[in-house]
Specification:
By secondary structure, the chain is an alpha+beta fold. It has one domain. The chain is built from two helices and four strands, in the order H-E-E-H-E-E. The chain has a two-stranded antiparallel sheet. It has a two-stranded antiparallel sheet with strand order 3-4. It is globular and about 45 Å long. The protein starts with a helix and ends in a 35-residue tail after the last strand.
Length: 107
């Protein structure tokens, strides 16, 4: 997708997608219905590392076949905010608890 939008994309730019490519709804799993943007490569790598840390610390298990042959995975949602913790609001609330993960450079 990025090459079709930005044919001249090169270092230090990197293509980032949302939802995360590592999720079931992510850009790696669907031909459409996602967003892309050019960001600095170091920021893209850092956010990927942080996402991996988030998965590990919160036991987010990717979708897989369990011992009964059924698809299983840990559902989670992302609430995008400008700063501070956020609780979901609206007519329907996703399952699970909102988590606020902050890193030392975000204090």
């Amino acid at each position: 997708m990025c090459r079709s939008l930005w044919a001249t994309c090169q270092y230090p730019d990197s293509c980032d997608e949302y939802p995360f490519a590592s999720t079931k709804e992510g850009a790696a799993s669907t031909p459409s219905n996602y967003s892309v943007e050019l960001i600095k490569l170091e920021d893209n790598c850092a956010s990927g590392s942080r996402l991996g840390w988030f998965y590990q610390q919160n036991r987010i298990i990717p979708e897989h076949r369990n011992d009964r042959g059924l698809m299983a995975g840990t559902p989670f949602y992302v609430s995008v905010v400008t700063s501070g913790p956020s609780n979901p609001k609206g007519p329907s609330t996703p399952d699970g608890l909102p988590l606020s993960e902050r890193f030392c450079d975000e204090q």
